Task: structure prediction
Amino acid sequence: MRDIFRTRRMWRRRGELKPRYDVVVIGGGSHGLATAYYLAKNHGITNVAVLEKSYIGSGAAGRNTTIIRANYRTPEGAEFYRSSVELYEHLSLDLDFNLLFSQQGHLTLAHSDRAMITMAERAEVNQLLGIDSRLVYNDETARLCPELNLSDDVTWPILGALYHPPGGIIRHDAVVWGLARGADRRGVEIHPYTEVTGIERSNGRVTGVKTTRGEIACDTVISATAGWSTLIGDMAGVPLPITTHILQAFVTEPLKPFLHVIIVSSQMHVYISQTDRGEFLIGAEIEPYTTYRGTSTFPFLEYSARHTLELFPQLESAKVLRQWTGLCDISPDYSPILGLTEVDGFLISCGWGTYGFKAAPIVGTTLAELVATGRTPQLIAPFTLERFYTDTLVSELAAAAVSH
Amino acid sequence: MTVDGVPNVRVCVEPVREGATVRAQNVLGSLDRDLLNVVDRIGGPFTPVGFYYRTMLRPRRLWPQYERVLRNLAGLGCLDKSGRRSGRYDVEHRRADVLVIGGGEAGVAAARAAAENSVGSVVLVDERAAPHIDGVETLAPARAIGFYEGGLVPVDAGNVLYRFRAGKVVVATGTVEQPLLFPGNDLVGVLLPQAVRRLVDDWALKPGDRGVIVSADGAGLDVVEQLRRAGVEIVEVVDLRESLPSTLAANGRRGRLESVTIEGRELACDLLVMSGGRQPAYSLLAQAGARVEYDARRGIFVPVDLPANVEAAGSVTETEPAAAPPPPSFDGGDAKGRCFVCICEDVTEKDVKRALAEGFDSLELAKRYTTVTMGPCQGRLCHLPSIRLYARETGSDEGAIGTTTARPPWAPVSLGLLAGRGLEPAKRTAIHHRHVELGATMMWTGAWRRPHSYGDAAGEARHVHEALGLIDVSTLGKLLVEGPDAAAFLELLYPNRFADMKVGRVRYGVLGSDAGRIMDDGTIGRIADDRFYVTTTSTGADTVIEWFDWWNAVWGMDVEVVNLTGALAAVNVAGPRSRELLGRLTDVDVSNEGIAYLDTKEAHVAGVPCLILRIGFVGELGYELHFASPYGEYLWDTLLERGKDLGIRPFGLEPQRILRLEKMHIIVGQDTDSESNVLEAGMPWIAKLDKDDFVGKWALEHVQARGFREQLVGFEMANGVVPAEGGQIVLDGRSAGRVTSARMSPHLGKAIGMAWVRPQLAVEDARIEIKVDGRLEAARVRLKPFFDPKGERLRA
Amino acid sequence: MSFLLPCPNCGPRDVDEFAYAGETTERPQGTPSPRELASYIHFRRNAAGVQREWWYHRFGCELWFLAERDTRTNEVLKTELPSTDAAGSPTPHEPATPDTPAV
Result:
């Protein structure tokens, strides 16, 4: 208890860059920091620099809607994210930092019989892997979320839902800070406001990076730069099957507890949760066009408000306080791209679409293991870049783009 | 305050309405005896910034209880759980030549000047009442929500949302008075000059009896005269530009101001007017693309480098300079009050210092850690003071620190106004009302509403096998592909062959992308050498038309694609007696020679010009009739009437699904997913890989070369249990495939389905196990249709 | 996105009227190797800068056209109808965003 009154630095002041590190991590977000943390903690690799072009957590890590879940469609995906949820469940104690993980449950609504099939498929895949996930009908949905408008008098009546009790929300900034502190205490150097401008190679392997603060020699570079992955990939000469899109969210003013479960509707492109601060945190689907311009749009507020009120008409007078935008990597099959590339020593964590934050701890542990042992852990073997050349995609998409 | 159930209303600007119910919120008990005060009083030492990150960690199982307490303390105002939408909101799309935001002196002058120069339409938006100006449309009370990409300026006018795009936008949003930071600055009785002016001028209220004024600019001093007129005794006026007291603190009891201590002198008073200078309200300009720069001389941030077509007027860019910016905070000596940086979020000077000491040393990090500027005032009152504080504490200057992003919306805006009136299209076929009259259960398929069944899905399905059924298939996409290159065009788009197709014939086609993925399916009939009639799935119609147009735009072939989806209705007359019925209604020869399986013919049916397609999605002898929509109900009625003695019955989508499953006909999007191709989906005969080129050819060749990874097959359950669609095929405890369709076939008396399985299981009669309700149920793989595998019924 | 996009046929219109269909790709001439095929199908330049891309005026004249847009600013520099004579002209591919749960 006394500890909370003592002022202790979370991390050291940014120092000078050393001329050489064993591992350079590009990106001070949840993936980069988790990788550095587990490199130090699990493998004793501490001569590591995390380079961040802005402040830590300034990208997707600090802009996502903080939802953690494991109820994916593919066995590969579900198994992977299950491991991540398990790590998240113990991360507060592990980091000695309360991440305010609120496992309030996650309901994905189905508004069509086609969607019901997809939900059933996910439930079956999940159950086979021991993930708590099942199809529920409106009588149970009404018990789980009495506030939800289940009437037929809407554009998209609700037929059922996929219920995932361990699904939850977490303080995203706390995850970033906790990992940064944990990494820093183990000797990892974190360098905010240090942008990478080039990656040095020789004979097909990485030899160093150029930054706005000077050059660094290293054998291993890990890119964890969602949104900008293709630009970093270009520096290393590694083309990536990724396009950059924006994803938006907004919060309302804080209100007293009202909603005690996370509500997602893919049909209506909206997801809604209420944070511990009382704000309603509402997000949507990615914008369909590619862009690096991270400005918020007004139509997003309009259609999100419309869809939110279809589900929760009680929110009519709630006011939007703040909206923001982040960049996402979209991969062709909506699964991540993780691990080795054709350039020796250049590793990637990208293509996360809108799922990246959920995977931070498991990305950290598996990439750290890959760096330490040189072998790709089984859990991430399906997600290699190579799969796009060998036609072994891991599709999280239930239906082809055209018919849904 | 909560007014009429609407939480978080700023009652100081909300006009009083008769009968309005006003309640205090976020208090336990009443405002005067608020039990939450205990939290406040002990809160100082007990709840330092970020305390929750460091506590309640152990034991882990108690966290949900802790969390409940935390959640209940957070938030302001309650929502009515049974509330419904009650407001009426409209949106207007507007253009203006000049849009002026802000109706103060500068805004009015700018609007007047624009009107006098007759630049066109001029609109003035103001939060309060703006004066009438000739030639200017005034919107008030109304607020600009933000300045978005493409010059979009949405304006909140209560129940109307104006979406403005203006030739020129003049931002005259003025300045925001800044508070001073000293202990006790949150006490009741500590006011900004603007609040004093409002109380005295607008509502003729006397804000206190004894007043002290501490001001860093003229604004604070200007109220002195007003206060005197209102009968307030002025105890002391401190002009910070002339003298800077070393200590300043407000003291109070039970939250109310009782005295002010200045350099050790305690002055009894119940009103303290403070003014820390004025910060230009630059948010809209920043959102529009202006840069924000620190003006060290004036101690404020100012917008510079305005984008084209955006102007600033008045004090938003030029404000009276204070002699010197006030200090970031005042030492309070031994005062007990807390020094607030952010009133909305309860962030004190101590919290900010602590955050910096802990390493949250960039503005963005400190903001996220302390939540300063993240409250409902959106930083209007705390942004500048907090930056000044960071600058002093970190020994850097404000200019280097910079500002945080001016995120929209500029003013809180309700979801109701943003939502407006929802309008999502729902489509109905030309025969819709007949289905309703016949008692059909309607269901959604994409935007369409279609009959699920007419009450007896199994009976309806059986009846098609035994006698005669009628289904409305108007929702199918219908295109005409016309022109000298029509055959060549389709030949390139589909894996099938079309060049050799005779006029009057129909072919089933599966449309794919260059990735080899199945996009859609349907039938293609050649109705003339240079004219093809193409049908698509109901939900795929728009995409297929766009896809055709797209390739046509690239290839520039001599072909035209015409969308007839809405123009034509369609029905399918199916069952062994369908020929007899059709024969009664048309003059053309309907014998097996006259219209053979997969023939198409133009003919009059019951006097209606129709295109007849003899195809068999449901597996029985049947004819699809396509005709002009206006005849929909007439032809439907006539078919039912003239087929009465043959036992004709309408059937819905559900029986159709049973029937097609008996034939193993796929439904794209249900039996296929984003990666499926025709080869693995069990339709290799469609892909003519010997063609020179077609969209998807190379990918299919690649699939052929690499071998199959999974295959779409049929299955028959051993003991009649119907598995869930989406159910898993299990091999050694792991997933080895998935069920895409499953039904009880009333005709066959079996539970049947289709599934994707590993290639080693894609063998006739292979035994598979499917998980059903947690148990494993046995099934046998079937590669041929369950019903009429040779297609004799279709060709009959 | 709320910028205005100049349709070659209709002039500047609200971008919400249009469907975006991705950067242009070059369809291989002749049979590609598996690697060339994978590059064509899956890999994009994803330029941070001017990008040549497909748009469709879905709620308008229903024309397909090409635009040059700076992806850093969303400024549209140019729009034009595709020319139909050049060999190796840009080709359609699957729509950019499928329907999938975002979170």
